[in-house]
Amino acid sequence: MSNRFAKLLYAIGCAGILLLLSCAPKGAKVVGVAKFVSHPALDALEKGILDELSASKADYKVDLQNANADMNTAAQIAQHFKQEKVALAVGIATPMAQALANQIKDRPVIYSAVTDPVAADLVESMDKGGPNVTGTSDMTPVREQLDLLCSLKPSIKRIGNIYASGEANSVALAEIVREYCQEHGLEYVESTITNSSEARQALLSIAGRIDGLYLGNDNTVFSALSGIAEVGIDKKIPIVTADPSSAETIPVLAALGYDYYRMGLATGKIVVRILNGEKTSDIPAFLSKENEDMTFVLNLDTARKIGISVDQSIIDRAKVVISDDQLVRK
Predict the structure, then answer these.
(1) Superfamily covering domain 3-139+259-291
(2) What is the mean pLDDT of residues 296-304?
(3) pTM beyond cutoff 0.85
(4) Cβ-contact 289, 266 below 8 angstroms
């Protein structure tokens, strides 16, 4: 399936859901759902939330918003939800969730795809929700992802990392990558960006100094992943990311991380529980430990283009394999 066709199907699906929601009774509760930016992972997560809400048969309608990776827009959306007195607000990705939590104090705020909700000052503990905040975390398995990168290129000595300096989740993940490199005697090379237009140049600036590139859960970077992948193939740099959703259509070497549609369903379940009267303080932060919620995507076409031979044992582990322009799910 082409990326353009997949996006068209996604748009049609969301339009259909929103059409159904717009037919909700006049007195229905309003659920505000806002994502920080549009990219495959967050789009899949948003769809999961909407599907779960639609299946719940709850009396509600949705106000769907997108901040387009702009913090000022995120703040404006939060103010809009506050003025509209939504029954609850859902923030997809750390910057969006922070914007909502900073402004909305008198009604529930549900975060989703927040790497570290404690470090982001959304809740005090993963074990308990806050007075009006709870949600789902996507704390990604950084060390496993870096192990994967090293297994794909055993000769690797220098690991690159590109992330947005303004995203708290990305700063936290960068520290883990730095520690991993120190522990394994690898050189750590980073390049930070402030917006997605800088991403391609960020890789070009370090391409000659790295043997592989790691990309964690960074919304600004993932919204510019196509350009990064192009540079990776041109410079023969293996790229491993935390976003399997985008790896199905964008030619990075591999991705290991959460199935974001399933995370959306889990977030939707929390929303329904709160609509049904439960308190956020009684719902701890959700972080899936289930293997079926994780996906490993491997692109053998990209491996051939950058001159990497992938061991069969690694191929056997992959849940999704791309070869000869064909995507196969196991």
Answers:
(1) Response regulator (3.40.50.2300)
(2) 98
(3) no
(4) no
